[in-house]
Amino acid sequence: MTERKIGRVISWQNLSPNLAIFRVVPDNGCRFPDYCPGQYIALGREDCRLTRKIVLDGKLHTIPDLDEGGKPKVGPVTHSYSIASAPFETERSHYLEFYLVLERDGDGHPGRLTESLFRMNLQLDGKIQYLDRVQGDFTLEKRVNGSGNVLLVGTGTGMAPLFQ
Asked: 14 and 20 in contact (C-beta within 8 Å)?
């Protein structure tokens, strides 16, 4: 059974106002599961600004979810993120590395989990949850299937491979 575990962000590097690289290590001497390049893991935090969907003028909008007093509601959010570090780095140094884009919806609101991560203070609260399971079959071995040619194209953060 997959367990929710606690990790700690040990390094954070802003590459731009909307792009960062960060590293996570597991707490309590645990180890991350083995993985192959192209796989992902679910990360989460408890202090995410929650949202709700509404329809205005026939269009779907995501807006901050407010309590009775008009304050933004805060709660847990989990999303899957592609692992950017190589398996040998994780085996040697015990961290997972991620490239993170501060997402924004069509109305300019930041993504719930990415916003929480970008405002995180490592000295006060660098905790992050993760599911102790790595998933995904978007790996070179499974996608190439013996093809003679492979084309890799960078999109988003430039870390996602596309195969042709």
From this structure: yes
* Three-state secondary structure call for residue 114: helix
Which portions of the chain are predicted below pLDDT 50?
Answer: 160-164
Q: Measuring CA to CA, which residue among 162, 119, 99, 125 is closest to residue 9? A: 125
- Spatial CA neighbour of 62 closest among 104, 115, 101: 104
Question: Under 8 Å CB-to-CB from 48, ≥6 apart: which residues?
Answer: 74, 75, 76, 77, 112, 113, 115, 116
Using CA atoms, how far apart are residues 132 and 23, in angstroms rounded to an integer? 16
Strand 127-135 relative to strand 19-26: parallel, antiparallel, unpaired? unpaired
Question: What confidence score (pLDDT) does residue 154 get?
Answer: 61
Determine the pLDDT at residue 158: 53
Contact 84, 154 (CB under 8 A): no
